[in-house]
Amino acid sequence: MTTPTLKQSTGPQFTRIYAIGAARGDITVPNDDLVGPIDSSDEWIRQRTGIIERKRASHDVLAVDLAQSASLEAIEGAGIAPSQIGAILVSTISNPVITPSLATQVAERIGAPLAAAYDISAACAGYAYGIGQADSLIRAGLAEYVLVIGAEKLSEFVDPTDRSISFLLGDGAGAAIIGPSDSVGIGPTIWGSDATKRDEIYMTGTNIGFRDQESEWPTLRQNGQAVFRWAVWEMVKVANQAIEAAGITVDDLAAFIPHQANMRIIDEFAKQLKLPDTVAIGRDIATTGNTSAASIPLATHRLLEEQPGLSGGLALQIGFGAGLVFGAQVVVLP
């Protein structure tokens, strides 16, 4: 019996980011609103994190609502029809239900109900994971355009008395349209994890424990010092790998857009990379807070608003956090 020859899908050689959309929580929460339960001060939070205020969403505003708003802006900016989107990837750890995925909810809301849709649970590295997967899906011929979203409502998982992470967290969503390109617009993705340190950022319990009244509602915690050391000393190696894989040097960068974990981490990271003074650095955390998977696209959106001349330049973006997982790539800014 002769085995028939199978066909394999192929796509364009290159991809790029077409547009970025953003949505932040509708409530501004200054440090003074949080310091009482943690017996702290505005000065302490600013010195420790660089945060002046953070955006959080009202009770009735969900992560999917933020994702929808950001996605619609990105679609409009890209100048495509929702029906052209072949896949929707949502990076999130704050979908309030196990199923359906947040991605399928977004698909229906934006007018792309037939698109492939799935969630990525990679926390703060999730957006970089999504960009890497979108690049691969398009070049493999599985989609013409891919919508990548980072969306979080982390305020649902905050213990107001926690001094490790609660005052860092905000709510928001960032979205990007990825599509075919005539030249390289997304460099190789460097990704991975250090599972031996997965307990450095963790939940205080499980939904099952809460259901069985064995524990309180699960909230986020972190080992701040361990995370700081890992983020700076280990992630700078990953960032340099992404730069090398892209075939460039730091002198070629127009922007550095790391996960908005902590201003001290961002500043030390930039120092370790030996970035030239000409490189713009995303520091959206000062007024948005740490939004996990949403932080890189939100910081990108703000940089492009404030400095539109960055469009077309090269940006190093790197996400790192809970898991502990990481992802980085060099991209051409839309």
TrEMBL record:
What Gene3D superfamilies does this protein map onto? 3.40.47.10
For this protein, the record's InterPro entries field holds:
ACP_syn_III_C, ACP_syn_III_N, FabH, Thiolase-like
Enzyme class label: transferase
- Keyword Transferase found: yes
Keyword Plastid included in the entry's annotation: no
An example molecular function term from Gene Ontology annotations: 3-oxoacyl-[acyl-carrier-protein] synthase activity
What is one Gene Ontology biological process annotated in the Swiss-Prot or TrEMBL record? fatty acid biosynthetic process
Q: Which CDD domains match?
A: KAS_III
Biological pathway: Lipid metabolism
Q: Which UniProt keywords apply?
A: Acyltransferase, Fatty acid biosynthesis, Fatty acid metabolism, Lipid biosynthesis, Lipid metabolism, Multifunctional enzyme, Transferase
What positions does the domain Beta-ketoacyl-[acyl-carrier-protein] synthase III C-terminal occupy?
244-331
Q: Where is the Beta-ketoacyl-[acyl-carrier-protein] synthase III N-terminal domain?
A: 118-194
The record's Pfam families line, in alphabetical order, gives: ACP_syn_III (PF08545), ACP_syn_III_C (PF08541)
NCBIfam families listed in its UniProt record: fabH (TIGR00747), PRK09352.1 (NF006829)
| Similarity comment | Belongs to the thiolase-like superfamily. FabH family.
Q: What is this protein called?
A: 3-oxoacyl-[acyl-carrier-protein] synthase-3
Q: Which organism is it from?
A: Herbiconiux flava
Source species taxonomy: Bacteria, Bacillati, Actinomycetota, Actinomycetes, Micrococcales
